Amino acid sequence: MMRALRVETALRSLLMLTVALFTAGAVLTDTASSLYGQSGDSLQQKLASQFTLTKLTDGGDIAAAGVVLVLQKKGLWMYSTASKLPPLNNYQNDKMSKSTMRDMQITMLTKGNTGFIDLPKRSFAAGETCWVIGLGIEKDGIVFRLYSAPYGDTRYYGDLKFPFKKGSPPEPDEALARIAEVLAQSGAPGAGATGAGVLRGGPLLHLPATFVSAQTPTDQLQLNADNSFSLQEAGQTYRGTFAINGNSLEITIPDTNTKTTMTIQGSNLTDPSGRIWALRE
How many helices (H) and strands (E) are present in the chain, helices listed first? Predict the structure, then answer.
């Protein structure tokens, strides 16, 4: 059903990300931050309630999964976490653009001064998923720090900024509507570092959850609380991410951008070929 992917490997220490949070000059914290009094506080509270952050281990794995976001626009750039700063994308006038100034900063910080051009990088397409690892309010806009699933042995991260149109924070509902033009929520956030979560579609299924093919018991699909999955099928292993839309489970292999939709029926899944995958108790 799918081509094999390379097995994930450990990522570089996320200390780089911590440095980047402050070097970038953005107000990015583990809760949304505000500089703007009552209006800003209201926006801060709205953002914090809508976008649960994902917590990472020192090795770059997901310790506690937050909200999963689905990109609605193409052209969002992310660089490998080997970069000491992520690229900065600005969403303005219905268009995505990458900051040249940020790329210059990355070049200055890159060992050997080889520049951002030599870094592993990726332009993400509409329909791909990511997590939020930082969120804040600058003096001129709202900034999300986004984090990708593994693509081969590499994870990517990037900043996405929504500049204020009139130089001051918009009303919370207006801000959320604009953010939704680019970032739509999908699935359920994880519930703490234990990996506990739920998959909705009929009864609640606690994550992680393993489903076994009724026809071929050696074929197994595991859904994890961070919205990643691993599939053992015909002796091969596939990895990727999944999203829930009503009673549909959409699984995606990032390297090939392959998508397959399965139907949730009670505690079972049905794949496009009609095979039943039963929940293993």
Answer: 4, 21
Contact 132, 31 (CB under 8 A): no
Provide the residue ranges of all domains of the chain, joining segments of one domain with +: 15-186, 197-279
Structure tokens, 206:
């606690």
Q: Rounded to the nearest 10 degrees, what angle do helices 172-180 and 37-50 cross at?
A: 40
First-last CA distance in the chain: 25
Q: Is 197-279 a domain of CATH 3.80.10.10?
A: no
> Helical H runs in 6-88?
15-23, 37-50
3-state secondary structure of 46: helix
> The tokens 């200390």 sit on which residue?
15
Contact criterion met (CB below 8 Å) for 54 and 163? no
Q: How far apart are alpha carbons 140 and 160 in whole angstroms?
A: 13
User: Each residue of 66-102: pLDDT tens digit?
Assistant: 888 888 899 999 999 989 899 999 999 899 999 999 9
* Torsion angles phi and psi, residue 91, rounded to 5: -105, 110
136: closest CA among 227, 210, 53?
A: 53
Three-state secondary structure call for residue 165? coil
User: Tell me: the pLDDT tens digits for 155-198?
Assistant: 999 999 999 987 788 889 999 999 999 998 864 333 222 333 44
Rounded CA separation 59/178 (Å): 33
Q: Any idea what DSSP says for residue 218? A: T
